[in-house]
Design a protein that fits this description.
Blueprint: E1 16-19, E2 22-25, H1 28-46, E3 51-54, H2 61-75, E4 80-81, H3 89-99, H4 108-112, E5 116-120, H5 124-127, H6 129-140, E6 144-148, E7 161-163, H7 170-183, H8 189-195, E8 196-197, H9 199-205, H10 211-218, H11 222-234, E9 238-242, H12 244-247, H13 252-266, E10 275-278, H14 285-290, E11 297-298, E12 302-303, H15 307-317, H16 329-338, E13 343-347, H17 351-354, H18 358-366, E14 370-375, E15 387-390, H19 394-397, E16 400-403, E17 408-412, H20 425-435, H21 445-455, H22 464-470, E18 473-474, H23 497-500, E19 504-505, E20 524-529, E21 554-556, H24 558-564, E22 571-575, E23 580-587, E24 595-599, E25 628-634, H25 637-641
Parallel strand pairs: 3-4, 3-13, 5-6, 5-9, 6-7, 8-19, 9-10, 13-14, 14-15, 20-24, 21-23
Antiparallel strand pairs: 1-2, 1-15, 11-12, 16-17, 17-18, 20-25, 22-23, 22-25
Helix pairs in contact: 1-20, 2-20, 2-21, 3-13, 7-10, 7-11, 7-13, 10-11, 16-18
Length: 643
């Protein structure tokens, strides 16, 4: 507890191994032998599912492909996951359930050409600034922007209308919008009848959410709910985008489904300019999932439980992929606690600081028999490892591809060489595979890519040469002779039932308030998010100065600060049912009474995830980072003196 001075992260250039509880420098052969031996020992004792792989959403598609191949073909487990679990797994789950694939449905150009844009639970101005430039182009061309967010963010300040909802009331608001559309005769009947199913049950389920009832539950004025309902339903090209304000809840998948319902109701999907778009926060979080670095899908978003799909990969790899889903990151952490998982291979992830209720994660990982971390810095996770492997920085020191939020695969080219002593991620994976009986060798990233696209129909038409010529290609791209439309799911508009295929189902959803209840002891709602100046847990961004960066603060509205008797910059203690931290107060006019805000950018000084709640979405496994119950206390003189 407290504010500690952050020690600068120094680039790793020598392998480390743990002896007598201490990490010491080692040769590459010793480190790789030690890493492989630990995997072999634990798999022999506990079976393949004693192993877990945490892959990296900042690394290339090619690295993620080889990482999941390592888990499946070398170890024999589907226990592979990435930071997708922390953020947008509910988006993938919701989109896949309704449409069959887990990517956003539009292109960035379509955002610019939209006449209405809804940003729901998204401070895109700070968290997705490049995407927001496309939004601004649309606004300058006349598009109307609606922002749904508990805070008056820098994004909301650009909106034509801001809907300030209470944290955790997204489903009531979406259901009320749907009811208003239905009762006003604004349903796109031809699309609903042709391309969807389950409308009658859905319509009945939203009937209780009248505008007055929704206003009481959500805090959004009834007239604003009505205005957004009519604007979205009447828009020629309506775009609905969201980020972690929707997904990082214990019912994140249902939240996503509630937004998809609105697009089905109005026909705002499956045609140019109308779509649904989860905004991805890291440079390749979309690509990591596309490459199969998730426990239930093989590369190309192919179902791991499909025998024909597995057979194709087994024939190419000489493997025997298990016919069942692996554990996701949340389930892997639970398996560690049970003792069922005893070894993990972590590539470029920092779960001991990024997971909710992070002290719990530290305890789980500290009890593992064998932890191998492959990274560019000695992160807090790496400090728990038994073997640390210095890696290259994928975004500037390797060749390969990334996939962005519009499903566009783009080439990334090596700009600088890794420092002496650091080695390429794929090379390290191959070295470990060789020590475990699989003699892999790739001469280039392109060779990895060609192996992947031979197995993934949706990537088959994307040669490196074609990616370079076209400046990137959106998936799906099954042929090198043609390009698909920039938008997905046009089939739902087909008049021929055979061409139309499976209808998109409406989802009946119930309101489920935040798990961490507000009480007299914990009366304030804490929500978390990003700021423009920093990146995730700050491992990479904190080493560079920024005139915008002010460090971690507890943001409070003026009235709450007055009621608590605290002033700007005063240190206070913030407590939840899981722990306590100390941070300075910042007054934010954009917050309403009862709502506080913090980021997770400075865990070495103020570890906010000590107080967030681990309540997770049962479908996607994502934690409820957005809704903790807290108490704020002034520090007495003795506490202040000790600081």
């Amino acid at each position: 507890m407290g504010r500690r001075k952050r020690e600068p992260y120094v680039r790793l250039t020598r392998p480390l191994v743990r002896d007598a509880g201490v990490l010491r420098p080692a040769s590459w052969d010793e480190a790789l032998d030690r890493a492989a031996e630990g995997f072999r020992r634990n798999v022999a004792a506990g079976g393949p599912d004693a192993f877990g792989m945490f892959s990296c959403a900042r690394a290339t598609n090619e690295m993620n492909y080889v990482a999941q191949k390592f888990a499946r073909a070398v170890i024999g487990t589907n226990n592979v996951d990435s930071c997708n679990r922390t953020c947008h797994a509910p988006s993938v789950a919701g989109l896949a359930k309704v449409f069959g694939s887990g990517g956003g449905t539009s292109s960035y150009q379509e955002i610019e050409d939209a006449d209405l844009i809804v940003l729901w639970g998204s401070n895109a101005r700070e968290a997705h600034p490049i995407f927001f430039q496309h939004v601004l182009k649309a606004v300058h061309k006349g598009a109307r922007l609606y922002v749904v967010d508990p805070r008056l963010t820098s994004t909301a300040k650009w909106a034509h209308k801001w809907l300030r909802l209470n944290v955790g009331t997204d489903i009531p608001l979406a259901n009320a919008i749907a009811r208003e559309i239905i009762h006003s005769g604004l349903v796109n009947r031809s699309f609903v009848e042709r391309g969807t199913e389950g409308f009658a049950e859905y319509a009945a389920s939203v009937e209780q959410w009248t505008l007055p009832v929704a206003e009481l539950e959500t805090g959004v004025p009834a007239e604003l709910i009505r205005e957004l309902a009519h604007a979205y339903a009447r828009a020629d090209r309506g775009q609905l985008s969201w980020t972690l304000g929707i997904t990082e809840h214990h019912n994140g998948t249902d939240n996503v489904l509630s937004l998809i319902n609105l697009s089905l109701l109005t026909g705002q999907v499956g045609r140019y300019g109308a779509g649904l778009n989860p905004l991805r926060g890291q440079n390749n979080v979309q690509g990591g999932g596309d490459m199969g670095a998730i426990p239930d899908r093989l590369p190309g978003f192919q179902d791991v439980q499909d025998a024909d799909v597995r057979a194709a990969f087994d024939a190419a790899w000489g493997s025997q992929i298990p016919p069942y889903k692996g554990w996701n990151l949340t389930q892997m952490l639970a398996a560690m606690e049970r003792g069922d998982m005893t070894t993990v291979y972590v590539i470029g992830e920092n779960p001991v600081q990024s997971e909710a209720d992070c002290e719990h994660t530290v305890k789980r990982m500290s009890n593992l028999d064998h932890v191998v971390v492959q990274d560019i810095f000695l992160t807090k996770t790496a400090q728990l490892a038994h073997v640390v492997l210095p890696a290259s920085a994928a975004w500037c020191e390797t060749d390969g591809t990334f996939t962005n939020s519009e499903r566009r695969v783009q080439r990334v080219r090596k700009a600088v060489s890794a420092p002496d002593g650091a080695r390429d991620d794929i090379e390290l994976l191959c070295e470990l595979a060789k020590r475990l009986g699989h003699d892999w060798h790739y001469d280039s990233a392109e060779q990895v890519w060609d192996e992947m696209r031979a197995l993934s129909p949706m990537h088959r038409g994307m040669s490196y040469a074609r990616l370079a010529d076209l400046g990137g290609i959106q998936w799906p791209c099954p042929s090198e002779d043609s390009l698909e439309p920039t938008y997905l799911h046009a089939r739902l508009w087909e008049t021929d039932p055979v061409k139309r295929g499976r209808p998109a189902p409406f989802s009946v959803l119930r309101h489920s308030p935040p798990v961490d209840e507000l009480t007299a002891e914990f009366p304030l709602r804490l929500t978390t998010g990003r700021r423009l100046d920093s990146y995730n847990t700050g491992v990479q961004s904190a080493g560079f100065p920024s005139p915008l960066r002010r460090g971690e603060t507890l943001d409070l509205c003026p009235q709450d600060a007055l009621d608590l008797g605290v002033v700007e910059d005063e240190l206070v203690q913030i407590s939840s049912r899981r722990g306590a931290i100390v941070a300075p107060v910042r007054i934010d006019e954009g917050l309403r009474p009862g709502l506080a805000f913090m980021t997770f950018h400075f865990p070495d000084e103020v570890d906010v995830n000590q107080i967030t709640i681990e309540a997770t979405d049962p479908v996607a496994g994502t934690a409820e980072y957005k809704a903790a119950a807290i108490r704020v206390d002034k520090l007495d003189s003795s506490q202040m003196a000790s600081r």
